[in-house]
Amino acid sequence: MSSTTSLLVQSMPALLQGAALTVKFAVLSMACGLVAAVGLALMGISHSRPLNWIARVYVSLMRGTPMLVQIFVVYYGLPSVGIALEPTPAGVIALSANVAAYLSESMRGAINGIHRGQWLAAYSLGLSRQQTLRYIIGPQALRIAVPSLSNSLISLIKDTSLVSVITVTELLRSAQEIIAATYQPLPLYLAAAAIYWVLCQALEWVQRWYERRLALPTRH
Fold first, then answer.
1. Considering the chain, what is the average pLDDT of its residues?
2. Which of 74, 137, 153, 155 has the fewest CB atoms in 10 Å of its CB?
3. What does each C-alpha distance from 196 to 22, 120, 154 come to in angstroms?
4. 3-state SS string for the chain
5. C-alpha to C-alpha distance for 57 and 41, rounded to whole angstroms
6. pLDDT tens for residues 70-109?
7. Cα→Cα distances 215→58, 102, 128, 133, 220, Å
């Protein structure tokens, strides 16, 4: 067995442990971001100009600044105003805040993509705006937004590597710690890249499978 192969075999448990944390980070950030995105999307389609303005400004700030800067603001900047966070919650908050902006635009676009006639038909049946959104528009918009939401989760898997700068031991940080002890950067960085690729491919497969499920005609 070559030295490189031996190194990878010995390093794999630590890399897989980091990969598990990466997945947990991504799923938790996606869940929190999705909740925030629903609120932002509803603000974006509301008839209130102040709410529209707040949503637009938030989305513009999150999409117009680097995620790395946002992570630094949350972890290193907030302590200056009395809010000190551990690396893990700081990373989740930063990732959730960022992905919420992208998800909200996907959801807002999906909602706006529903034909206006469906709103009018629901109103004619006596449904309120909230009921129309919940029972008529929302489920259809979710089906439209699934590909975009899935793509955001795949991107989030890769973006979790950025939290390594605040000492969160996810996949990239795990590889860096092993490199610091072994001085073998190339095989370990390639191994980390391969694991990221496998994770993204698995999520892409799940996305395609779910899209096919949604495309099947509903049986009555």
1. 90
2. 155
3. 9, 46, 10
4. CCHHHHHHHHHHHHHHHHHHHHHHHHHHHHHHHHHHHHHHHHHHHCCCHHHHHHHHHHHHHHHHCCHHHHHHHHHHHHHHHCCCCCHHHHHHHHHHHHHHHHHHHHHHHHHHCCCHHHHHHHHHCCCCHHHHHHHHHHHHHHHHHHHHHHHHHHHHHHHHHHHHHHCCCCHHHHHHHHHHHHCCHHHHHHHHHHHHHHHHHHHHHHHHHHHHHHHCCCCC
5. 13
6. 999 999 999 999 999 999 999 999 999 999 999 999 888 8
7. 34, 24, 29, 22, 15
Distance CA 55, CA 40 (A): 6
Q: CA distances (Å), 16 to each of 45, 88, 142, 190, in order?
A: 42, 18, 33, 14
Residue with tokens 């892409």: 204
* Residue showing tokens 């929190």: 32
Do residues 179 and 114 lie in contact, with contact meaning Cβ atoms separated by under 8 Å? no
Q: Tell me which of 154-163, 170-179, 209-218 is least confident.
A: 209-218
Residue with token string 């959730």 = 96
